[in-house]
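Comment thread on ticket #2218

A.B. wrote:
> Attaching the input chain for the structure job we discussed in standup.
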Amino acid sequence: MKTIVKHSRTKSAWNVVSTTIGTKYKIAVVPYILTDDEITQTKEKNEALEHAEFISKCFNKKI
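C.D. wrote:
> Ran it. Output below, let me know if you need it in another format.
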């Protein structure tokens, strides 16, 4: 199954979605916390992106 990471249009989260026809579209949702501090928010967003990319990479691995 091929997957990609996309940012949610309506929530503060990264979505792992399938690009393979005939499979479930949304595989995982990785949310992050919104804060008033820009540095903390950037850190949270980047950490969530790393987690989403790891999940996507696991699905994209060939056995």
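A.B. wrote:
> Thanks. Noting for the ticket: The helical segments are 38-60.
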